[in-house]
Amino acid sequence: xxxxxxxxxxxxxxxxxxxxxxxxxxxxxxxxxxxxxxxxxxxxxxxxxxxxxxxxxxxxxxxxxxxxxxxxxxxxxxxxxxxxxxxxxxxxxxxxxxxxxxxxxxxxxxxxxxxxxxxxxxxxxxxxxxxxxxxxxxxxxxxxxxxxxxxxxxxxxxxxxxxxxxxxxxxxxxxxxxxxxxxxxxxxxxxxxxxxx
Length: 197
Known about the structure:
Largest sheet: 2 strands, antiparallel
Order of helices and strands: HHHEEHHH
Low-confidence stretches: none
Shape: elongated
Number of helices: 6
Number of domains: 1
Helix content: 55-70%
């Protein structure tokens, strides 16, 4: 191992003490700027998500209004009556999709949904109608109808940031290998020695 002459060691210590306050301030300023940039990025992400959720909320309110209107099929008998009165397959498909969307976006949520197609196969109006009658309508009868659409807004921005460190207790709880801190330090030192050789 190489050792520096005592004069050079002393000179480094004096320079370190002299420049430490300035470097500490520069480090703190850089850390504050990084924190501010992160906060700004998070605010922007939350604003974008709120805008998207706002559009979903408006669309959900529209479907909720449709649920309260005469367009909504609320019983199996009414569903079959309206479905059978439609003459074309495209009109039937459009009407059944609308009824499913009223429940998925306006009242019940994602569990009321159904794929329109899968692996290149497009579901027919009859298949979607069966889903609506056997899944969606019973689900709707079990629940209280909401006053707002089922759109969830994520919470705000967390202002608690860490520098990537954790307490010893957190480390031990998260340590999957079951090794102690000392064992991990020894393993790291051994790895560094092997890489240096």
